[in-house]
Every structure is written in structure tokens, then in C-alpha cells.
Here is the input.
Amino acid sequence: MTAPGTVPRSTRPVSPWTPPLDIGQLTTVLDRLRGWTAFDGGALLDDVAAALDDVFPPEAYTAQLAERLRGHLARLVTIAVASQAEQDTAAAQLVLRARTLQTAPLPGEYRAATAHLRRLGWTANELHDRLAALRCLEEAA
Here is the structure.
């Protein structure tokens, strides 16, 4: 054991630390972290079940369900892109379909709205299953 002060100190100059991002970029990262919500596979499957059930959801509930399914699709697309699942042909087709459905408005007529909900639910379910098969989702893998 050496006594305090007997260890040789380095005399070479060290450059001062600089943050990797400027204040604006750090603020952007912080805002994104605050707005982030974790992927909830259980909620996705509940919403998919509601959309694909034999009993149509109540008319007052369709807009809410469509918005939640769009959110699930957005998260799944983000996961697919981040994990490079788009290199898989089937996943790439599902991502394209999900992006198309995300931007499509909910039809005003009830039967057309329920058909749209079923397309949203089916696509979310298929993309979820494909990402699970590709081992892109921990909870489903």
C-alpha cells in the first residue's frame, strides 16, 4: 500500500469535456423523452380484439378506438424501422400498409368506420406478430 501523495500524477494536458449536443439538441431529446410512452403489448392486443370482435364496437367508441390503433401502429412502425425489420419483405409490406392506414381518415358512416377499424386492427396484429417472429419485440419474443 502506498502512502497518500506518493502516487505519481500525470502531467500531460487533458482537454476539457464538451457535451455531445448543444442546448437546443438536449432540449429536443428531453422533450422527446418526456413525451415517450412505452410499448404496451397488452393494450395493443385488447384494442385489436375490440376491433376484430364479432360484435361491432359502439358507434361512439369508434373514433377513440381508431386513434388508439393508429398510436399502436405508429409505435410498431417505429420499432420496425429502428430494428431494421423492413429488410424482411413481409415486414416491409406491413409497415407500408400501416403507414397508409395511419394517415387515412376514419369514415363518417358507421359500417365504413367499422371496416376501417378492422383493417387497422388486422394490420396492427399482423405487424405485431411479424415483429415478434423477427425477435424485434422483447415481450412477445
User: Anything to note?
Assistant: The longest helix spans residues 110-133.
